[in-house]
Amino acid sequence: MSHLRAILLVGGGGGVPCPRPVAQGLQPSVQDRTVNWKSMTESKKTPARPTLKAVRGTRDLLPDQTPLWNHVEATARALFARYGFGEIRTPIFETTELFARGVGEETDIVSKEMFTWEDRARAASEKAQSLTLRPESTAGVVRAYIEHKLGETGQLQKLYYIGPQFRRERPQRGRYRQFWQIGAEVIGPQSSGSESPLRDAEILEMLASLLDELGIRDWRLELNSVGSSEDRVRYNTALREALAPIKHQLCEDNQRRADTNPLRVLDSKDEADQDLINALPKIADYLGPESKAHFDQVLAALDACGVPYHLNPRLVRGLDYYTRTTFEFTVTTGLGTQNALLGGGRYDGLSEMLGGPKAPGIGFAIGEDRLILTLQAQAEADAALSGATIPPAKLDAYIAPLTPAQNPAALALARELRTAGLSVEVGDGSFKLRKSFDIADTLARHIILLGEDEVSTNTATVKTFATGQQTKLEQNLLSGLLSQPHPSKHDDA
Ligand code: HAM
């Protein structure tokens, strides 16, 4: 019995008991599975099973999409390295308590959107734990900062991450249940300069440079200061007082927020509530002298770097850990209502909220799905304007063995050329010359024909599609020919 078949039949447990089915009827018994497997393979009468689809709010990224994702990620990695950031990879799930304490129990993320499960105790001595797929990465990064005592180095930690996040939101364009973030955090003891307004401005300038380098054209930086925790206590009191007489006029969600977390009312998109919300007290009027001076220095540094910004007194963000500088970059192309490309801010008290030492920090997370949608929408708009279409990237060569006898030589040649850094596909085994030419022409810039004669003389016949030229040459000269820049028919003229 093959290993794969054994896994299909009994779960591959080699003596280890199978885990119990979570819900009755979902997992067939070992015996049932044996019967199903046999009937799948042997009986034609088995009714067709419904096809399985990706879970709502999740997506597959196919090979025609991933090059753009890789380009974006490579550009970000290279830029982050120039600013002294190193990569951190934290687990995709953490204890639920981390997010409850870090992000805040009253936030939409924690109260409504987390994928949480009770993880069973493995031994009698262990307790069951509540675990959660990470809805964001800042809390995990700060947990790692505390756990690995990174603060004891005395150095400022500049950490970046790229990875999936999970929120149970209503899916729509630009909003998914599994989405990717490219984020970074700057955190350290006060003595490392982690609280300096220079850090805030550097992060914002870095983001502006990244979006420019990626070719995002119409970004807009919205900026605010939500003050220190002391400023926020005074502002919250003022907000509660202002909300009390008008609360009954607000939508249900905002009435609840007015009681539990009045700052969140400012974040509301409810159309009917906008006039009332705009008339509420502004946080800028409640900033203490230190917060105000800090924010003024951030703005002065941005002015000096020439990074444009728009002050938005209602930008409080949907996570509880923020203090002082908060920001979002929005775009007008491609995202519709989900127009926040990225968001971030300062979180000077987060480490202490998680039981760690004082470690002020600031960071951001880019919604990578939204960044890609924006780039695609821009490219489509450009193509529509110029009437151009974007040609797919082609391989360097397609090797066509002329008979099965040349298969081994074709694979050996492909290996040699790939080792030399060229992109190569090997023929499909149909050994039909016309078909090979057609496939090669759509996939690659050259076709390499390998017949009996070529193999015995260590040569190859190569046709360059762009020029129509065909030559026979020694195989050791192939990589030189294939790596020549794209010729065009006009080059011959
Ligand atoms: P956030 O604003 O919750 O902040 O998320 C950052 C970005 O992730 C958003 O601006 C958006 O582009 C993207 N995003 C959020 N939810 C979704 C979704 N359901 N589908 C697609 N994209 C989404 C944070 O996550 C903070 N941890 C940022 C931060 C880092 N603050 C300080 N350091």
Radius of gyration: 29 Å
Distinct small molecules bound, one entry per kind: histidyl-adenosine monophosphate
Span between termini: 64 Å
Structural class: alpha+beta
Q: In which order are the strands of the major sheet placed?
A: 1-5-6-11-10-9-7-8
Q: Quickly count the helices.
A: 17
What portion of the residues fall into strands of 2 or more residues? Answer: 15-25%
Counting DSSP E segments of at least 2 residues, the number of strands comes to 16
Shape: elongated
Largest sheet: number of strands, sense, barrel closure: 8 strands, mixed
Percent of residues in helical segments?
Answer: 25-40%
Provide the descriptors you would attach to this structure in a database record.
alpha+beta; binds histidyl-adenosine monophosphate; five-stranded mixed sheet; 493 residues; disordered N terminus; 17 helices; elongated
Structural description of this entry:
With 493 residues, the protein is an alpha+beta fold. 37% of the residues lie in helices and 19% in strands. The chain has 17 helices and 16 strands. The strands form 3 sheets. The protein has an 8-stranded mixed beta sheet with strand order 1-5-6-11-10-9-7-8, with helices on both faces. Strands 13-12-14-15-16 form a 5-stranded mixed beta sheet, sandwiched between helices. The N and C termini lie far apart (64 Å). Bound molecules: histidyl-adenosine monophosphate. Residues 136, 138, 167, 169, 174-176, 179, 181, 183, 185, 318-319, 340-345, 347, 363-365, 367, 369-370 line the site of histidyl-adenosine monophosphate.
